[in-house]
Amino acid sequence: MRRQLVSVGLAILAAGGCAMAAPAWPAGFREAICSATGNLQAADLAFAEAVDGVAAAESERVAIAAAGMERESDRARALLIAAPGWAAGGQLATELSTAATGFGRAASDFGIGARQGDGPALDRAVASAQDADAALARADREGKRLQTAIGWLPC
């Protein structure tokens, strides 16, 4: 069950990030959204690896996956913060940033859980990943709204 928590988020990112950036948008914004989307996809894969490590009771594997989640979510946040502001895409960038923050929190709690064998930390990690998944769902809705309002084209 835990492994599937962000599978919907991965699909949302694939459809709502790189697949829907309009060439009329500022290049810096478009590139930041696409790059951040790739980083969040990598964080999602690392989350699945961390969950697998928990199921196998392999704390070292969980710690490695958590470090990967943190690295990729940090990169995504940096790209989104540095993206030139653009009003029409601002909400999408905000939701992707919220998702990146959620993955970062999950990574931190997975790291604690791996080091200390702490069940509550692992539970917090899953809750943070669920928050990230909810942000990705909001990003998908915003992407659909933008597609209807102004039109989006693939990267």
Description:
- With 155 residues, the chain is mainly alpha-helical.
- The chain contains 5 helices and no strands.
- It has helices at residues 7-16, 27-55, 59-82, 90-116, 119-149.
- Helix 1 packs antiparallel against helix 2 and helix 2 (27-55) runs antiparallel to helix 3.
- The longest helix has 31 residues, at 119-149.
- The termini are far apart.
- The model is unreliable at 8-23 (pLDDT under 50).
Quickly describe the structure.
The chain has 155 residues and is mostly helical. It has helices at 7-16, 27-55, 59-82, 90-116, 119-149.
Quickly list its features.
single chain; 155 residues; mainly alpha; elongated
Q: So how many helices?
A: 5
Mean pLDDT: 80
Q: Segments where pLDDT lies below 50 for 5+ residues? A: 8-23
Per DSSP E runs of 2 or more residues, the count of β-strands stands at: 0
* Backbone shape: elongated
Radius of gyration: 16 Å
Q: Note the gap between the termini.
A: 33 Å
Structural class estimated from helices and strands? mainly alpha
> In percent, how helical is the residue content?
over 70%
Largest beta sheet, briefly? none
Strand content: under 5%
Q: Return the string of H and E elements.
A: HHHHH
